[in-house]
Amino acid sequence: MMNANGIPVSEKKRVRISSKRQITIPQKYFSMLGFEDTAECVVRGNELVIRPVRVSSGGEFSEQILAGLIKEGFSGNELLEKFRERQAKVRPAVEAMIAEAEKAANGETEYSTYEDIFGTKD
User: Is the dihedral of CA 30, 34, 35, 36 positive or negative?
Assistant: First the structure.
């Protein structure tokens, strides 16, 4: 089974944990996921997710964030500070949405349909 990016879903491989709590990421996964020299560890429920660190290009909703801040009247250094604060909230919010979607997909929680949220097209 493949996801939208052509990456196999639920592929497993056991790895040994050294006495120093170190693991080796299998080469296949290392290459496939685009790891470089750092990894990010995230605790999600009772799982540890290890993923490549992505350097933010600043493109995550940047235009929308800036437009909103300018509309709110921010400028200069205050605009820069507020932009950094709001941009830092984007990834955690998206990750929370993905986690909720995964729970709904696995039947672990209730879910809402488009019609539940926005109503029917009339």
Answer: positive
